[in-house]
Amino acid sequence: MGHDFFQLVSVHKLRESALAFPLVGKESCPLESIPGRVLAEDFYADCDWPMRSRSCMDGFALRAADSFGAGEFSPAYVDIAFECRIDSPPEQDIQPGQCARIVTGGILPSSADSVVMFEQTREIGDGCLEIRRPVAPGENIMLRAEDAAEGDILLGQGTRIGFRESGLLAAFGGHNCRVYRRPRVGIISTGDEIIPVHEKPSPGLVRDVNLYALAAQVRDCGGEPRLYGAVRDEYHLLKEAVQRAIEENDAVLISGGSSVGVRDLTIKVLEDLPGSRILAHGVALSPGKPTILSDISGTAVWGLPGQVSSVQVVMLVLVEPFLRHIGGESDPLWSFEKRLYPAVLGRNTPSAPGREDYVRVSLEAGDGESVAWPVTGKSGLLRTMSNAWGMIRIPAESEGLIKGEKVKVFPFRVV
């Protein structure tokens, strides 16, 4: 097979191919280790919550009707019958004209339907309470099963667990849950010019930036990176490294060598591996055109550009949603499509039709709205990424965007 680019596929088409790969396996995980993992099955409420109606405030539980008409100058009066415990239901009930002292979280007597806050009352005489503000039925209380009823689905399969979800799991007994494994992702750098990061480069040599940047991006979307180091531009060395990485991982990322030059060996290696199927060699994306996606006997192997900013854009646009997908997330494109930040464009920004163009931008406060300013620089320059707050997308059918046009910025960090 020749090494010219195949007919360029669209970003949408390549995403469709990537999101067709199977999910990783499942395992059990204790609650203390679950943050960052993805649920492999629905999680159900094991009881009503609250199990009984409870107070939201320190105050007095009563029948709301006994407070109707109360005011600063015409208070209502009720008798304090008893005090509610926080750790068990009251053993008695209140009658009309009575109330019970209660703390936040305390269980209401069955005939009480509201709580008047402590600061809206005054105790007078022997066990008499003066109420200076009326309360409505249901005020300042949590009703039984108001949060959840036994059997409700609280978290769906495919939910990534954060601090909010961890609290919900704890409240409903989720001490050990079935989750998807973290995708194991092998990362290989290629190039005769690549040296380890601890060595000082001489002219013509560069430290291995992509190995560590890719590892960080893999971790950001829940994967487990495994670093295979830099491989020289020799066919048999690269083929051996890729074969090993495929055997040991759920996906493989190869940085560099994905284009069509004489030293670009990635496509040749991937074509020659047993069970190989090249799904794309070239995508209508800038930066990132020389991207490869191959299916090697069910394992996705990505050939990525070697230029630092190009490979990071491809990771954000294509590979991160793929990793979230095989890691079990029900909405893997959330990370890319649903955290966009509105802004206006600071200056005219041209683009070549026929490709999706991702332009790095800085962000600054404007007159009532944020302004996105394109960060200029060639794709090989490191600081075009580090100086940018995020990036904007110019559609493939567009010749560019106009100053003042409303845009959506994809932030490099979640906002």
What attributes characterize this protein structure?
single chain; 28 strands; 415 residues; Molybdenum Cofactor Biosythetic Enzyme, Chain A; 8 helices; 19% helix; six-stranded mixed β-sheet; Molybdopterin biosynthesis moea protein, domain 2; 30% strand; 4 domains; alpha/beta; Molybdopterin biosynthesis moeA protein, domain 3
Description:
With about 425 residues, this protein is an alpha/beta fold. It has four domains: about 10-20 and about 185-325, MoaB/Mog-like domain (Molybdenum Cofactor Biosythetic Enzyme, Chain A), CATH 3.40.980; about 25-50 and about 145-180, Molybdopterin biosynthesis moea protein, domain 2, CATH 3.90.105.10; about 55-140, Molybdopterin biosynthesis moea protein, domain 3 (Molybdopterin biosynthesis moeA protein, domain 3, Beta Complex); about 340-410, MoeA, C-terminal, domain IV (Beta-clip, Beta Barrel), CATH 2.40.340. Helices cover about 20% and strands about 30% of the residues. It is built from eight helices and 28 strands. It has helices at about 10-20, 165-170, 210-220, 235-250, 265-270, 310-325, 335, 385; strands at about 25-30, 45, 55, 60, 75-85, 100, 115, 120-125, 130, 140, 155, 175-180, 185-190, 195, 205, 225-230, 250-255, 275-280, 285, 290-295, 300-305, 340-345, 350, 355-365, 370-375, 390-395, 400, 405-410. The strands form eight sheets. The protein has a six-stranded mixed beta sheet, with no helix packed on it. A six-stranded mixed beta sheet has the order 16-13-17-21-20-18, with helices on both faces. A five-stranded mixed barrel has the order 22-25-24-26-28. A hairpin with a 3-residue loop joins β8 and β9 (about 130). α3 runs parallel beside α6 (about 310-325). The protein is elongated. The mean pLDDT is about 95.
